[in-house]
Predict the 3D structure of the following.
Amino acid sequence: MGTSWRIDETYIKIKGNWVYLYRGVDKEGQTIDFFLSEQRDIAAAKQFLRQAIEQRGTPQKLTLDGYAASHVAGSKLQEDGILSAKLLVRTNRYLNNMIEQGPRRVKQRVRPVLGFKRFAHAAITRSGIELIHQFKKDQFDISGLCSPPFRTPQLWEAGLAA
């Protein structure tokens, strides 16, 4: 996992209400973490960053979009000592282009079924989609689970069986 992270949030509609999907990737496009929240605020951004740091360690660079709550959350985590005070936190819209394209696949799958009906179902579906993308990006060694060429149904069955 790289030490230069790109973080973004987008929205998904669940039963007529907007919920927010926080996603992080490193500069090579490897998924760091994702988090579905009913609010788009400082607390949700802090929760996502804490969760990502627990799983992947601390980054050296953090690229955020222009949303102020994400920057405040990063600053608060630096004050709390969770993130290094030397951490470079920046905003660069062009570096985040890679992550901006990630949620469109979810939205393409959800649109025909008129959105999610429950928050829990959205979280489960999103987890499954992220897992398949991580398989396809070779973030897991799945050679012992199934033989190449890897197709999505085979990956899914092998991942669930493991």
